[in-house]
Amino acid sequence: MTTNPLVPLPTQPENTPWPTEVWPENLSADGFDRAACESAMDFAFSAEAEPHMGETHAFLAVHRGQIVLERYAEGRDASTTFPSWSKAKSITQALIGILVRDGKIDIGAPAQIAEWQDDDDPRKAITLDQLLRMSSGLKFTEDYVDSGVSDVIEMLFGAGSDNVAAHAAAFPIVTEPNTFWNYSSGTSNIVARLASQALGKSGEAFEAWMFEELFNPIGMRSPAPKFDPSGTFIGSSFCYATARDFARFGLLYMRDGVWDGRRILPEGWVDYARTPTKTPPEEPMGYGAHWWLGIAGPESFSANGYEGQFTVCEPALDLIMVRHGKSEAGPKGDAVRAWLADMADRFRG
């Protein structure tokens, strides 16, 4: 398991405005190996890169609060919205944080899941914290290729798509909670329904709350969250946004949940997100609470999505990297992660 020493989160430089309306740019900034970064981008966006790391559709880097690198594939630009896939899980974690801030939910208490309330149901004791850490003990197969064995495909596109949280909540418990880590999109949709339940809103009303409390205050204008027919935010997988807006979300976490003097996330919530959860030895990355750890250095944390969607925060460098593309899991996905780690290294002194 990759560990995360929780280095201090950097504050916004005094001479750098917050990007609530417009991102400050410095596309000629020094202080890092710009030539090496430009060369790496040249390769990533080239046809020659596709057999190695798949397609790259967008990349930008925010260093010390300013955009210092930005590039898009042909036909895409700063106004293009990109799929989040599982980066939405980290947005779901932020929504839970806002509810914690407002005293509407307790992550240490047993999750109030209607399907689990029988006295003899062992799932009744599962806490929201265990769900956020993917350590609930629930059965779920996270497979994006084989529809014959994939619980996530059945949930998102098959029989479970009308009510994704109910579909996920029906799975049995197979291990004692807090003893085994199992990455599960079903878990995230259970968490999203818990958020809706705690707020007392679903569908369009819940979406309006997302904009009022999270997106609008930090200048995210482009997000398009998707909901199932029951009104649950599909918090495992679907929140489209521009690369610049995903960078704004990363900056909120880099700045400890505070935006231009306003606390959006409760104190300590970002540290909670990046505190390691015990993961199996074969898992190459670490995991916190709905955030991944270690992709660009041991202190980094990231929102990761299917086919190579990434928002990476490296607090030791005050560096945020956003990458979108189409890169299959396996060697191509490994190559993208290595490419991001190499890009981060270009900012080290």
Global structural class: alpha+beta
By CATH, the topology of the largest domain is Beta-lactamase
Q: How much strand content do the residues show? A: 5-15%
How far is the first residue's CA from the last residue's CA?
Answer: 26 Å
Count of separate DSSP helical elements: 11
Find the CATH superfamily of the largest domain: DD-peptidase/beta-lactamase superfamily
Helical fraction: 25-40%
Q: What's the shape?
A: globular
Task: Sum up the structure in keywords.
alpha+beta; 11 helices; 2 domains; 349 residues; Beta-lactamase; seven-stranded antiparallel β-sheet
Question: What do these coordinates show?
Answer:
It is a single chain. The longest helix is centred in the N-terminal third of the chain and has 15 residues, at 87-101. With 349 residues, the protein is of the alpha+beta class. The model has no long low-confidence stretch (mean pLDDT 95). 49% of the residues are buried. The chain is built from 11 helices and 12 strands. The chain has helices at residues 34-44, 50-53, 87-101, 128-132, 151-157, 164-169, 185-199, 203-215, 243-254, 269-273, 331-345, and strands spanning 55-63, 66-72, 81-82, 224-225, 239-242, 258-259, 262-263, 286-287, 292-293, 301-305, 309-314, 319-326. It folds into 2 domains: 1-83 and 241-349, Beta-lactamase; 90-198, DD-peptidase/beta-lactamase superfamily (Beta-lactamase, 3-Layer(aba) Sandwich).
